[in-house]
Amino acid sequence: MNDELRERREAIVREHMESENVHDFETTMDTFDHPRYEIIPTGDVWDGDEEVRQYFEATRAAFPDQRNELIALHHADAGVIVEFDLKGTHEGPLRGIPATGKEFSCRTVAFFLFEEDRLVCERVYFDAATILSQLGLVQPAPSLQGDS
């Protein structure tokens, strides 16, 4: 991959992530050639303009302050791999679960997949149990390090 393509992809990813933070979803949508989110922990795939807009509506109803804090970008032939902290406050229903008013912070990885300089998919990985336990919806797992 040449430096120009690498820089173009990184600029698209940065614009995408920042526009999500400020809820400028028109800009977010414009970063895609074809909008598609694959949320691996839940098995959800949001494909196409209408479905991705439904994804934004549902997630921001549950977490109106949802945001990402960039940790690192890694370039690969297929795209850009991003490590970030995903954060938010549970202020609305989430899959039928009433709001808890609690905050979460979860280390997350997203693969921004490209065809040349066209973003075609954001594939997101995170530990759902981390988020659910911080929201008080499940008990946290015991530490493997133990206290003995």
Could you describe the 3D structure shown?
- It is a single chain.
- With 148 residues, the protein is an alpha+beta fold.
- It has a single domain (3-134), classed as Roll (Nuclear Transport Factor 2, Chain: A).
- 31% of the residues lie in helices and 34% in strands.
- The chain is built from four helices and six strands; from the N terminus they run H-H-E-E-H-E-E-E-E-H.
- It has helices at residues 3-21, 25-30, 49-62, 128-134, and strands at residues 36-39, 44-47, 67-76, 79-89, 103-115, 118-126.
- Strands 2-1-6-5-4-3 form a six-stranded mixed beta sheet, with helices on both faces.
- Strand 3 and strand 4 form a beta hairpin.
- The radius of gyration is 16 Å and the shape is globular.
- The N and C termini lie far apart (51 Å).
- The relative contact order is 0.17.
Short description:
The protein is of the alpha+beta class and 148 residues long. The chain has helices spanning 3-21, 25-30, 49-62, 128-134, and strands at residues 36-39, 44-47, 67-76, 79-89, 103-115, 118-126.
